[in-house]
Amino acid sequence: MDIDWILVPGGTWTTHDQRSFTVRTLLWARTPVTRRQLGTPHPDGHGRHPATGLTHARAVRATQHLGGRLPTAAEWEWMAAGPERRRWPWGEQEWTPDHANLSPSDIGSTTPSSHTRPARHHTGSSTSQETCGNGPSTT
Question: Which domains does the chain have, with CATH numbers?
Answer without folding.
Answer: 5-131 (3.90.1580.10)
